[in-house]
Design a protein that fits this description.
Elements (H helix, E strand, L loop, with lengths): L1 E5 L4 H12 L3 E6 L3 H4 L7 H6 L4 E4 L5 H8 L4 E4 L6 H4 L3 H20 L7 E7 L7 E4 L2 E3 L6 H5 L15 E3 L12 H20 L3 E6 L1 E3 L12 H10 L4 E3 L6 E2 L1 E3 H13 L6 E5 L5 E2 H12 L5 E3 L16 H7 L7 H13 L8 H10 L5
Parallel strand pairs: 1-2, 1-4, 2-3, 4-5, 5-9, 9-14, 10-13, 11-16
Antiparallel strand pairs: 6-7, 6-8, 12-15
Helix pairs in contact: 1-10, 4-6, 6-8, 9-11, 11-13
């Protein structure tokens, strides 16, 4: 196939380009080379260099109809990765997130509608953020907690409780039929992206798949962007010899899915002609606590730094969420193969070979405090 990858110079995109190029596909990338991801000299970033010679590159925005039209010419498949990422930042840069994630998707879909007969497949990147909190159970009944009560959070009561009885809820995996109730602007825009794509492609008779990624990690992810995830943030802090402030009680958990597995899920979605108009949760199916992440990174770097469980919390953060792998396994033949310990070892080895990134975490926290989003 000849495949357009929007946002193809980002972390997921660059690894996808590498895989698809090796498999003989022709690749075109449309990307803005955002300094937040690629640094002060975006054209020289490692991710940009990774795709050099493996694709045709167009520097431009998915919000620009002319750039999108040119990028689509001759392509018969699209992987739509272009988006602003970061739940915390989305709460105070609302216009930018809506412009790039929602309006950018609208521009892409309009351009595709003018060429609908040429496309064999569209894959859109969504997020576990569409669910907000994960799924819970009590006495055989499923519960989908809304935003946690700030009075409880301030008192150190972090786990969701049954609204009727006040009893603690039991965490279970989140499947694709779980309730949609995003609690960040980022989550709202990702759900909008996926549904716009599925609805429009269904009307145009273009096969489409949406993939709701859990927390993607691995070699190559940005180490300087304080909004891209705790592995990068914690690694930079540890290697600077700085302590790590762990929110809440450190028992909050996430599903970490390795980059190679994420790329595999996209490739399977592209090439399976029998899979269309479907949504898949893509994760490892394992919940790992934030405190475990910090301890494992310290072990991998052979560094000891203070791990401070602060009880602080961010407005809009969730407590838990991990994927149910069954549907992706059954319909896509996809299953995450890299366990967390193996993946974090590979990640840490890569980090140690990189220049030490600037630690911008404190500045990002100060910004959230100023806006009343960090308590």
């Amino acid at each position: 196939m000849k495949i357009l990858i929007t946002g193809g110079a980002g972390f997921i995109g660059a690894n996808l380009v590498t895989r698809l190029h090796a498999e003989g596909h022709a690749i075109r990338v449309l990307d803005t080379l955002s300094p937040q991801i690629h640094g002060a000299e975006p054209s020289a970033s490692p991710l940009r260099r990774q795709i050099e010679g493996k694709c045709e590159f167009i520097l431009g925005s998915v919000c620009d109809p002319a750039a999108v039209g040119a990028a689509l010419e001759g392509c018969d498949a699209v992987v739509h990765l272009a988006a602003e990422t970061g739940t915390g930042q989305s709460m105070y840069e609302v216009a930018r997130y809506c412009q790039n994630n929602v309006q950018g998707t609208a521009v892409l879909l309009e351009a595709m509608a003018q060429r609908k007969s040429q496309f064999r497949k569209v894959v859109v990147a969504s997020s576990r953020a569409v669910y907000g909190e994960g799924r819970y159970m009590l006495d055989g009944e499923y519960f989908y907690p809304l935003k946690r009560n700030e009075t409880d959070l301030a008192a150190g009561r972090f786990d969701p409780i049954c609204p009727r009885t006040g009893r603690a809820l039991e965490l279970v995996s989140t499947d694709e039929d779980s309730r949609i109730q995003p609690n960040s602007i980022y989550g709202v825009t990702k759900y909008t992206q996926e549904q716009m794509t599925l609805v429009n492609c269904r009307a145009l008779a273009i096969p489409a798949v949406a993939l709701r990624f859990q927390n993607v990690y691995g070699p190559g992810q940005s180490l300087s962007n304080p909004y891209t995830g705790i592995l990068s943030i914690f690694s930079t802090r540890i290697l600077h010899g700085q302590g790590i402030d762990i929110y809440e009680d450190g028992k909050e958990s996430r599903d970490f899915v390795y980059i190679d597995d994420v790329v595999d899920s996209i490739v399977r979605s592209l090439v399976r002609d029998d899979v269309q108009d479907e949504v898949f949760g893509i994760g490892s199916g394992v919940a790992t606590s934030v405190h475990t992440v910090a301890e494992e990174l310290c072990r991998q770097y052979n560094r000891e730094v203070p791990l401070r469980v602060t009880g602080a919390y961010r407005v809009g953060d969730i407590r838990h969420n991990f994927a149910t792998p069954e549907k992706a396994r059954r319909l896509l033949g996809f299953e995450a193969r890299v366990d967390f310990v193996t993946g974090i070892q590979r990640f840490a080895q890569w980090v140690m070979a990189q220049p030490l990134a600037a630690d911008s975490y404190t500045a990002s926290v100060d910004e959230m405090k100023r806006r009343g989003l960090y308590k």
